Amino acid sequence: MLDVDIPTSLIETLNEAQAVTILTGAGVSAESGIPTFRDAMTGLWAKYEPEQLASPKAFEKEPELVTRWYDERRRLALEAEPNPGHLALARLERIFEKLGREFTLVTQNVDRLHQRAGSRRVIEVHGAVTVWHCSKCLEGNEERGGPFEKYPPVCGKCGGVRRPAVVWFGEPLPPGALDEALNAAARSDLFLSVGTSAMVYPAAGLIELIRRNHACSLEINTQETSSTHLMDWSIQGPSGEVLPKLVDLAFA
Ligand code: NAD
Ligand code: ZN
Asked: Is the pTM of this model over 0.90?
């Protein structure tokens, strides 16, 4: 049993919220066996920093290395299963839908586990690692199978190098997704930041906006982050345990 206290004021606020925006990060998928960036740099990859593998410059210079790394991420995502945290968020979406209230899930994750858990509307601000497209002609599709035949994989249409449809360091976020996330957050009376260090944009921007609007805020994380002190409530614990308990208590 989870040994964390969930404050009554938080339970009541979630129960009464008319519009909620939830931002998730790599921590939400940690219990599904998908490492956070910091934890992923082991074994063969220990000598690299994420920035050395996740940038357009790295892809241009070392396409084989970068596509091998991302193909490993892709297969890890496909082999993983959604955990109780993902499932609790899908359940919360259905509860809000039934009540005619607004629910927006924004994720920085690229693993598609929210969708596989049953979340219907997910705003992906960093793309998806299971989708690959040609860097030249943009032809692309969801890749479901085992390893690629060769690295880097090439486009059958134009011979260009294929890449994961994720947002790399230094690349712009998908503009529609970002606007949608910011608009939803602006309308929300409750904001949850779950399993994210909340340092990269748009996480930091969303938190700023929520504070300006005096909406309520909750952080769920196994550790303290640079945003913890900005939140109305902060629960330290694994999201796969905290989220199901929170949803149960608010909508028992
Ligand atoms: P991050 O690695 O910066 O932070 C992860 C956070 O999760 C940390 O604050 C950590 O304390 C917390 N955490 C770890 N285990 C947890 C658990 N069980 N429950 C709750 N919290 C837990 O991740 P980020 O903020 O998402 O940013 C890194 C970027 O890396 C993202 O933008 C994303 O695109 C990419 N990424 C994605 C995945 C994925 O799709 N699963 C995995 C690794 C990295
Ligand atoms: Zn092509």
From this structure: yes
**Nearest protein CA to atom 15 of ligand 1, as residue:** 27
CA distance 85 to 107: 13
**pLDDT at residue 133 in the model:** 97
Pick from 93, 85, 136, 91: nearest CA to 111: 85
Is residue 133 annotated as part of the catalytic site, yes or no? no
222 lines ligand 1 (CB under 6 A): yes
pLDDT tens column, 60-116: 999 999 999 999 999 999 999 999 999 999 999 999 999 999 999 999 999 999 999
For 44-80, letters b (16+ CB in 10 Å) and e give ebeeeebebbbbeebbeeebebbbbbbbebbbbbbeb
Output the CA 227–ligand 1 centroid distance in Å. 14
Residues 72, 74, 78, 81, Cα dihedral to 10° = 80
Q: Helix, strand, coil shares of the chain as percentages rounded to 5?
A: 40, 20, 40
Burial class (CB within 10 angstroms; exposed 0-12, middle 13-18, buried 19+) of 34: buried
pLDDT tens digits for 175-193? 899 999 999 999 999 999 9
Residue 97 contacts residue 80 (beta carbons within 8 Å): no
Ligand 1 pocket check for 111: Cβ under 6 Å = yes
* Residues 186, 20 contacting (CB under 8 angstroms): no
pLDDT at 236 (0 to 100): 97
User: Nearest CA to 196 among 12, 22, 5?
Assistant: 22
- For a substitution probing ligand 1, which of 31, 74, 131, 196 has the most ligand atoms within 8 Å of its CB? 196
